[in-house]
Amino acid sequence: MQNITERFLKYVSFDTQSDANSSTTPSTEKQWEIARYLTEELKRIGMEDVSLDEHAYIMATLPSNVDHQVPVIGFIAHFDTSPDYTATDVKPQLHRDYDGEDIVLNKEENIILSPSYFEDLLMYKGQTLITTDGTTLLGADDKAGITEIVTAMEYLIQHPEIKHGKIRVGFTPDEEIGKGAHKFDVDKFGAEWAYTMDGSQVGELEYENFNAAGAVVTVHGKIVHPGYAKGKMINSMLIATKFINALPANEIPQETEGYEGFFHLSEISGSVEKTKLEYIIRDHDLGLFQQRKKQMLKAAQNINESLGSEAIEIDIKDQYFNMREKVEPVMHIVDIAEQAMKDLDIKPLIKAIRGGTDGSQLSYKGLPCPNIFAGGHNFHGRYEYIPVESMVKATQVIVKIAQLTAKKV
Ligand SMILES: [Zn+2]
């Protein structure tokens, strides 16, 4: 697995930033470049049925090398990077034998990656870290995942003595704008289950994520000259404030953790005549999630009743659901990943994601899909970094999962 660093550095040299305001798939033309490159590379290492479809989704097959029946499994990663931060001209820096001290990313601009702020760095003393030069993100999210999957497939091809069933590989565009799973053809993929290689720290294994909805609250007011407004003006901003205050003050992102859900006011714009509030609603528990949506509707209703008008309109749309419901009936797929880690002396860190993954959408499209660590930290910004050793471990986990799945029971 010597070429893992080289491979990763090649992938991050492509600018693959996605764009939430685009209506095409992929959302940006530039994602095609890496898509074509990966397609060729998969062929070059000896994968079969390599396909690149009209939306830049890549699929490929590693055929089984055993005679007995083995479930078809898949590994999935995304090649786009976050619209939050530039990925143009990424200049990765290698830091061998990391000494646990501050890393100067950029001398001129005094940009420093420091363990006094990012304590996770101290876990990687003595390892080889790949960082940015402080001016872009790195793109370990999720080019590390792609590196690990390609490297694992290459390893299995070069080591036919390792027994495995049929393995499918899927690389997608546009995960960072929530659309990676949208045009993913689950039937064509044809796997019984899959894993996204898109988590962070070594050991992470996730099969629970939020249930998610978005709410747009529109408040209607009435503008009248302020000097003659008595009994006539309706200030939508003040009504909006009432609505904001009607929701529990401590159920917000900065006051919650673990399995605690929240309402998050993400945007506000207003004038006397009209105020718009945008919320996201999150909860791991489906019952509590439904209750939160009702709670919002009720808050609007109460205010409308007190005003004797329909001043507040509210539109709530579900976004994605907790994959737990789809994974729990097939828990052996989590058990296999956990066993693979234990066999490799990696301590599994099983926790609920406070967010969503492509795997949650895929799970609801019929492809149960837990998430496994890819090794990077501080995604979506200039402090992003990844230890090479973590990529090696993730690659070994993929190989081990393939092996365990093919074991006769
Ligand atoms: Zn990702």
TrEMBL record:
Q: Which residues form the active site?
A: D80, E175
Q: Which residues form a coiled coil?
A: none
**One term of GO molecular function:** tripeptide aminopeptidase activity
Cofactor binding, note field: Binds 2 Zn(2+) ions per subunit.
Q: Where is the Peptidase M20 dimerisation domain?
A: 207-303
Record-listed E.C. numbers: 3.4.11.4
Homology family: Belongs to the peptidase M20B family.
Which HAMAP family does its entry note? Answer: Aminopeptidase_M20
Q: What's the protein called, per UniProt? A: Peptidase T
Native source organism of the sequence = Lutimonas vermicola
| Name of the gene encoding the protein in the UniProt record | pepT
